[in-house]
Amino acid sequence: MAKLPHDDIYQLVREPIDMAALARHVRAPEDGAMVIFDGFVRNQSHNRPTLYLDYEAYESMALAKMREIGAQLHEKYRIHRVSVVHRLGRLEVGETSVFIAVSAPHRAAAFDACRFAIDTLKRTVPIWKKEYFEDGAVWADGELPPAPAATPRAKPAS
Amino acid sequence: MLKPVPLAPSSSAGYNSPVPPVSQTIRVTVLFFGRLKELTGHPEHSIEFTDAPTIEHLFALYAARHPELAKYRSSVVASRNQEFTAWDTPLRSGDEVAFLPPVSGG
Questions:
Q1: Which pLDDT belongs to residue A157?
Q2: Cα separations (Å) of B52 from A77, A123, B21, B80, B88?
Q3: Which residues in chain B have their CB less than 8 angstroms from residue A139's CB?
Q4: Domain ranges within chain B, ordered by starting residue
Q5: pTM of the prediction?
Q6: Of A126, A144, A151, which is closest to B88 when you measure between CB atoms?
Q7: For residue B101, which residues of chain A lie inside 8 Å, CB to CB?
Q8: Inter-axis angle of helices A59-76 and A107-124, to 10 degrees?
Q9: Do A144 and B105 touch (CB under 8 A)?
Q10: pLDDT above 60 for B5
């Protein structure tokens, strides 16, 4: 895995995400573009009004997977800095749960990298949300991460 | 200088035995998340085996204790030492295994 630049930021936090500070950090003089993804809590799910969400994570693995995504971004796209921050715990409607910012010399790479980052995060990072409604709570439908189907075995010696 | 400590009866059992007793114990830490944590009632569990189980064996063992787990088998992925892994992966002592329901971050 490629080494990540020192000025990238990958974090799991329990407090509100300071988007302005992160954006200031990612946006550098040598860049010409920054794309930001701000994912926040919707006020309904399948037409039921949402009261709040509760996020939990397999924290050590989630952080490792977020950093893996960052390494992939730097391999695939001509970008500069990356920030990926996910919040855990109870989040109210409208609060930001995930923040991704990518800076680049030119906009196309920043757009592509930011899209790749959120799509990959939602499929591979071990984080779960429980949705709370007036009349109960459910674990949100999720995506099954791709896992190896079976361990490759050495052929028996003949 | 420490005084010689007399051997306790239990520790003298294998003394002078031609083959030293070998411990085959495999200890694995198992983690459950999301609805699987609620079903099993524990987020983290430590378990010992005398033969190396696969991840599939490990899941079956918990499914026997918590029958509701079995119906989630097809919608669970497993990780070993924080990497997604195949169900036929054999476990080694000290491994950290997690059973993960479909992820829903973001």
A1: 52
A2: 43, 31, 18, 14, 11
A3: 34-35, 101, 104
A4: 23-100
A5: 0.87
A6: A151
A7: 128, 139, 142
A8: 150
A9: no
A10: no
Beta bridge partners of A26: none
Inter-chain contacts counted by CB atoms under 8 A, chains A and B: 93
Site of tokens 């497993």: B78
CA torsion A120-A123-A129-A132 (nearest 10°) is 110
Per cent of chain B over pLDDT 90 is 73
Of A125, A128, A143, the CB nearest to B33: A128
Tell if the CB–CB gap between A145 and B35 is shorter than 8 Å.
no
The CATH code that applies to domain B23-100 is: 3.10.20.30
Residues of chain A neighbouring B95 (CB-CB closer than 8 A): none
Residues of B in contact with A151 (CB under 8 A): 85-86, 88-89
What structural domains does chain A harbor? 9-135 (3.90.1170.40)
Residue B8 has pLDDT above 60, yes or no: no
State the pLDDT confidence band at B14, using cuts at 50, 70 and 90. Answer: very low
The interface predicted TM-score (ipTM) is 0.90
Q: Among A27-36, B13-22, B69-78, where is mean pLDDT lowest? A: B13-22
Instruction: Say whether residue B105 is in contact with chain A using an 8 A CB cutoff.
Output: yes
The tens digit of pLDDT for each residue in A63-111 reads 999 999 999 999 999 999 999 999 999 999 999 999 999 999 999 999 9
Q: What is the pLDDT averaged over residues B58-65?
A: 95
Where does A32-135 show beta strands of DSSP type E? Answer: 33-40, 44-45, 48-57, 82-87, 89-92, 96-104, 127-133
Report the distance separating Cα B49 and Cα B24, nearest Å: 8
Q: Residue A139: exposed, middle, or buried by beta-carbon count in 10 A (0-12, 13-18, 19+)? A: middle
| Joined tokens for residue B41 | 């009632």
